[in-house]
Amino acid sequence: xxxxxxxxxxxxxxxxxxxxxxxxxxxxxxxxxxxxxxxxxxxxxxxxxxxxxxxxxxxxxxxxxxxxxxxxxxxxxxxxxxxxxxxxxxxxxxxxxxxxxxxxxxxxxxxxxxxxxxxxxxxxxxxxxxxxxxxxxxxxxxxxxxxxxxxxxxxxxxxxx
Length: 161
Ligand SMILES: [Zn+2]
Known about the structure:
The chain is an alpha+beta fold. It is built from 1 helix and 10 strands.
């Protein structure tokens, strides 16, 4: 315990300043591009990557992190060394913060999360098949934009809304 009230005041001020700075930083990051988990609302992107926890559907011990480029339509991907996947392998995606599943309930091999850019929110739906390049972006008016050469596989993307 700090007995000197002047010193206590000093510490209190410092704390308040830190809090103010923290709110300021939070506001700035919301103005930028942010991807969030639909369950815990934690930001899942950093340094231009969307970070997802992945686990092979076939072998549950085959797991690791998958880093997707935050720019839609850029399919650059980085995978941690403990996850071994080949083209066509299916993975389950979960939030790296709260571990909730990000798999789309209606689609067999899709996952989704939220994108916020300049306070505009949209839903991003991606394939859970490694090597399959397809991304859907659904805005709050249910308007769908699609990206990637595997997108034609989904004739009617309405079904996952
Ligand atoms: Zn989460």
